[in-house]
Batch of 4 targets.
Target 1
Amino acid sequence: MAGADSIIAMYDNYYADGKVDVKREISSKQSVSHLTAMVGAETFNRILDIGAGEGAVLDKLNKLKIGRTLGAVEISNSGLTAIKARNIPNLEHLDVFDGYHIPHPDGSFDLGLALHVLEHVEHERQFLAEAARVCKKLYVEVPLEHTRHLDRAIRISEQYGHINFYTPLLLENLLKTSGLKVERLMVFANDLAYEQLSGGRAKGWLKHKIRTGFLRFAPNTAVRNFAYIGGALCSAAK
């Protein structure tokens, strides 16, 4: 990851004080809803959360009975501690990793999740190749911040460690050039709860209405002007 030591240091205590718990809770709900919209009726027995944070997504997967068994890898010690504290019943594997080496054999999991991880990764294709080695399919989700306001997006997201910026086309190209076949790619607006957490009740409501409206009626204009979320379901290219 971006200057691996600096990223690990940045996130080592990131989840220790609970300051990001509310944001992570809302974010995890919308990411899991995006995942279910993407996979439809397709089912997966073994799911690996790659860069699992403090386990909010794992908790949702368990409660919704998505995946018979779960696994997780995470670089942050505070994240690992928080995941353990959740006592998720079907979490069979929990491991520390350096961002590039997953301690599991080839094809160990039916589905891998890389949710809001790639924007932090220095060597994206190396990360994706390793994820594809371990997982038969991969769901990747990133913020789409490469808009005409990119300079502002860079300034705002710097505090969160974002070093990569995407459009739908850039994301698709990255996945294809990493040896992945993109089965489906969708663009999502942030949920109302997330927008109101970020911008306040009134401003968040307005931003949500504007972004969802533009995305529905003028999607090309929308992604050029506003930040969204891109989700892609992939498999290893043959």
Note: The mean pLDDT is 93.
Target 2
Amino acid sequence: MHLRTLLQAVFATIVAFGPVALGGAAVQAQQYQNNRAYGPIINGFNVEEVRSLTPGVELHFDLYGSAGGTATLRIDGATRNLYLTEVEPGQYTGTYTIGSRDRIKASSGVTANLRLGNQVATSLLSESVLASNAQRGERRGQLASNLAIKRFDVQGAPDLGPGNELRFTLVGTPGARAEVAIAGTRGVFFLPEVRPGEYEAIYTVRNRDVITADSRVTATIRANGRSTTSVLARPLLVAARAEQQRVARYCTNCATVEAVNLIEVSGNGNYLGTVGGALIGGLLGNQVGGGSGRTAASVAGAVAGGLAGRNIERNMNKAERYEVVVRYTTNGATQTLQYDNDPGLRQGDRVRVNNGVLTRDQ
């Protein structure tokens, strides 16, 4: 009787928790498929440098990359590999204790492997596991005096979909450990120190990330048990904000002055001026000489007088006008507008064209 009761209780427990277990398995399977589709990535790999490499000394390693993987280290001269533990999503840590049979040197290379399924990402340690006395003393002095982030910036991407890259830079205390956390992503990633006090890394957006232009991004540097943080003050999608500003300033009648030309316009001589000049010239010519010579002088005087009369009238009607050539901002087209007086514009001025009238664009 008691056995039946016990079996019934076990069956009820399986029924009650079975869907939860199955649901958890489904989530893990989906995460595994996502990781396989995208492949593993190692964003950062570093070590806490030690004073010596004698037996019993511990080497502490940190690796930042894709979550849900298996991370291992191989140290040249070591007798065994080191398996790292995922302490947070995407953050792996582990300590290797130097044994008596190990032959680890300052120049020994360290290789990290991060496996997801049948795919493996590899990274080589860019620093030595052994720090010199001068380097160690200088670094400790700097870290003890001032642990700070002076600048934290990002080079945004035109799109935040999978595969796009975000380049982060951080300037702060040298010799520290720098990491970045992005809202909408899992875990943190490491920024290697490319130059003393300058940390830099590229984050590649993964297919399971949910990043927006205004996602909160926090940088942290750590050293000697202390830490300080800084929040990114600009959007990740810089192009989006620039596009909004451009749309807000979209103007169909905005233009730039290309040139301001001064034009002289001469009036056309009419018959009155020509005839009047001819009559005066003929009378003057009639007073010269006698006989046929007088007739020739009269004709010559009439012709010359007609030309003079035409030029006099043209000069009387001559005027100055201004031509302003503008180029529209939206499509690059040009337009020429005429003014009787100086419009007071110069090349390069920004203007608006309203019914053929130019006004300055404030």
Note: The chain has four domains: 1-33, 39-131, 146-250, 254-360.
Target 3
Amino acid sequence: MSIAVPASSAPAPAPAPALPRVADPGRAAPAAAVRGSARRPIAGALLAAALAAAPGTVAAAAGPTASRAPEGASAVLDGLKTYGQAVLRGADGSARQIPAGLYEMRVDGGGMLQTYGVGITGNAQPQARYTESGWSGTPLGGNAEAGRIRWVLEHSYPQLNDLAGLAKAAGAAALTAESAAAGTQVAIWRLAEGVRVEAVDPQAEKLADYLQRAAARLPEPPASLAVEPGEVSGALGTRIGPVTVRTGAHSVSVTPDAAALAMGVRVVDAEGRPVTVAANGGQLFFEVPEGTPDGSAGIVLRGSTRVPVGRVFTSGVPAQVQIVAGSSESAAVATATGRWPRVPAAQPVDAAAPGTGVTTLGALSAAAPAAGPDTAEARLASSGSSAATPVIASLAVGLVVLGGLVVLLLRKRPLEDTPTPNQGHTPE
């Protein structure tokens, strides 16, 4: 069949939460509040300094935020174009008349699609945006009859434009485009949802019965354009890949994205030759210059092909999934991403250089030691420092150590706060 193609047309860190305070009968409440509020800014400042010193750690925790472009074609639903009527019967004996037939879609970048609805209660809305998808994640993903629905599409209207021949096969007197579309849609609904639905036109009903009875199981169709896998990673100095092209197009263009161009990343084949055009089964690699900072880049593939019959389009609402019954030559797009992660240069904690103070999380979480006669410890307390000062210098090793340090700073009680035996008494 053929369809006429129209003219194309780094966030600031959140403040650390205040830890619960335990009442101390030997300490005046107002003074404790003042000292607690003085220590909180210290903890917040340490947290900000650690985050600034370890941007790679924060970025790794956040992960990539950019969403990938859909693979294959994207389209806008024009609406129901060729249809008849059907009657949906409920379990309670109710009957409701609904339209049944072919929808049309306009493909982004050029092309037209003809589709049927998968869900009988979908009420697909004109001008809704749809993207091409596989069966997985849609109502057809776990449906044992999905392959039979594809058979119906391949053996009925509009794939078969010979309406006289189709009527003869179905045992119908005659079929129009409207009755053929209605009968085909009714058969799809029966297989997809197991509902009791009948075409109002007797000839369309005969076609629906024939299609449901004769349908065999076919495999899921391939994408119009896709890559496998969508993301690859590797070390600098190697060819990162491969990414394999899957398409029905004769060839597709291959273009590095803006990030790749800015960093001098090239797209090459297995022998290192630059690639600008690829065909089905072609393998692509990312070639990243030595000395490039750790990061990622992408490639964009574009082509023009017919979207396979039986491919589905989704709008985000499962009940509104559409399934392709016919396609003109249509634009399709796919993307792939290459990553080259940085190898951390920090030493393991158990391999620290001699003389470097390393405090484990367990030690930081333990209760603070009691004050001793050592006057140096008293001076440290009065100056706002602590025995954990070396840990502050190595906060970039990990935020886990920072968490333990904050606990220590908030819980440790300065020695100068301890009341003297004569405090609060008048000498005799």
Note: DSSP finds eleven helices and 16 strands in the chain.
Target 4
Amino acid sequence: MRYIPITQAEKEAMLRDIGVSSTEELFAANIPAEVRLKRPLNLPPALTEMELMAHLRELAAENANTAEYACFLGGGAYDHYVPAAVDAVLRRGEFLTAYTPYQPEISQGVLQAIYEYQSLMCELTGMDLSNASMYDGASALAEAAGMVVSQTGRSKLLVARSVHPHYRRVVATYMHGLGVELIEVPLEGVTLDLNRLEALMTDEVGGLLLQTPNFLGYLEQVRQIEALVHARNGLFVVAVDPISLGVLEAPGNYGADIVVAEGQGLGVPLSFGGPYLGIMATRERFARKMPGRIAGATVDTRGQRGFVLTLQAREQHIRREKATSNICTNQALIALAATVYLALVGKEGLREVANLSLQKAHYAAREIASLPGWRLAGNAPFFKEFAVLAPAPAAEVSRKLLEHKILGGVDVGAAYPELLEGDAGADGGRAAAALTFAVTEKRTRVEIDRLVAALREVK
């Protein structure tokens, strides 16, 4: 779509054709006088390009950014290092300006990039198939929930309380439209309550939506959970942190039926909240229930390798009632960033990124837990994120950290009040807040020690 300007004469001719003499007369005939603005818009005078750029720089300087602040925030968006080559490839015109391939056979470069992305996602997750990406982690999980309902024909679905609260809200919105009863499985400490899962997992339930590492950063007991879900012929959906798969078992190896993820950590900057990348991979038997599209490799009539859209199950390609989802596009450019990132770091590099994040997070957790009034919220294993109970309200902690040019941590007490209920430390004191801190490979020991020193000042 592009804007085509018209001349004044053309505008006047159009107005005459519809029987009015001016734009004002057109508005007056259709918009009540009491709601019409009777003064000029309150806008500043126009700026030159140079003035506008200076103004935008002033506005941008008001943001606290990760170039100047040490970031320990997490909760689904993480400050991982993005190699310069990722952006260099993304800015190539054939990728940056390309839209979704409506004529796929003449979009061989885009299709090959998507195919390589899918191949890497399958290798990373241990699954058979990956689609050509989703919007983000939350919508990917919601689409996976729809797949479970469609595949099993059951009207109930379990979701672990340890799943990201925003993800659960998106899933609830999707399931409401389908008339599916969404049942929350509570926590036991900082991970899923296995006894409650066993009781809730009945023959009427289609499956379970799980996140590991969960929203609080802790690893779920996936093998026991998988056995409980499959014992009732349910489907096991797992949301993962793709960086964690550098050191943790691939979900396909412990029985996951559908794997989803937020791919932001794979070469995508924080960007103040987006755009991000939704990853989805599954078993081959669920291919026709998968939303979106699948790019495939083939051989043409001349024996040359080519790429095609093997499966197009979105409503813009097939009849609406036959579509698996109403997803209208994909995140091909962001998926390309993940592809370039994984190709650059390779298996050993991903393992090193994951291991550095793991080791640094555990160092930070030990140091914070040693502070008077601070303690870990649970004893379960964690990856790069962990929850702590704080002696002061979350807002006060955040203000103190900002004074030291530190971003962190995420206030999770409101979403998980059970972390604070009945809590008492060894000295009998009550925690005032529950927060999570995330530590990536970018954080240095100096930054972690600065974080701990700032937290020591919190009273």
Note: Residues 332-369 form the longest helix (38 residues).
